[in-house]
Amino acid sequence: MNEKLKLSANGRKLLQQFEGLRLQAYQDSVGVWTIGYGHTQGVKRGMIITPAQANAYLDADVKTHAAGIYQYIRVKLNQNQFDALVSFHFNLGPHILKGTWLLDYLNQGKWTAASAQMLRFNRAGGVVLLGLKRRREAEVALFLKPDSVHDDLGTSAANGKTATYRVKRGDTLSAIAAKYKTSVANLVKLNGIKNPNAIQVGQLLRLER
User: Which of 116, 70, 69 lies closest to 92, judged by CA?
Assistant: First the structure.
């Protein structure tokens, strides 16, 4: 579904900002030996690397953590959402979504509810950390930031194919159905909506003409 998406320069900048560059091994907030931009695999006390090695580790780690997004998320993401989730996974692990409410909300296109869940992952060792709180807030801000390329209805709808629509303030399911010449029943079925009167701002709806 999202395999064609790769971390953008903007997403990489976010990662580097929060991970920070350390060329000598150190122990993170929970005692894990770390180096470069948050790299932990095979790191030992006294290890030293170059900036080029740090970037190579970062590239490999991004691929590892993006795999969780490709595996678990079954709805189309835009670039900002993907970048935010790469940072989220990079910090918490490639399988962090498995069995969570966050994953359920993501796969229902309930972006506002999903972002609220993301903010809850701000603890290490059971303690809320200011650094994690700030990171989650930055990730959520990026996650909810419109991406003009992917958030528009686009040419697919004009060609009569399946497209998507992001719910805006004041929208109703019946109004959306009328605008895109479909039915409420069809939108409910396509999107697994349980309550047609409870769509959320930011929710991504699949459309079919």
Answer: 69
Identify the structural domains of the chain with CATH numbers, from first to last: 9-144 (1.10.530.40), 162-208 (3.10.350.10)
Quote the CA–CA distance of 12 and 73 in Å, as a whole number: 21
Q: Give the tens place of pLDDT for each residue, 85-140.
A: 999 999 999 999 999 999 999 999 999 999 999 999 999 888 999 999 999 999 99
Cα torsion angle, 33, 142, 119, 117, sign:
negative
Active site residue 19: yes
Average of pLDDT values for 67-82? Answer: 96
C-alpha span between 144 and 151 (Å, rounded): 11
Instruction: Dump the DSSP string for 71-84.
Output: HH--S---HHHHHH
Question: Residue 18: pLDDT above 80?
Answer: yes
Q: Which residues contact 67 (CB under 8 A, 6 or more apart)?
A: 94
Helix axis angle, 79-92 to 9-19, nearest 10°? 30
Q: Which of 19, 137, 139, 208 is catalytic?
A: 19
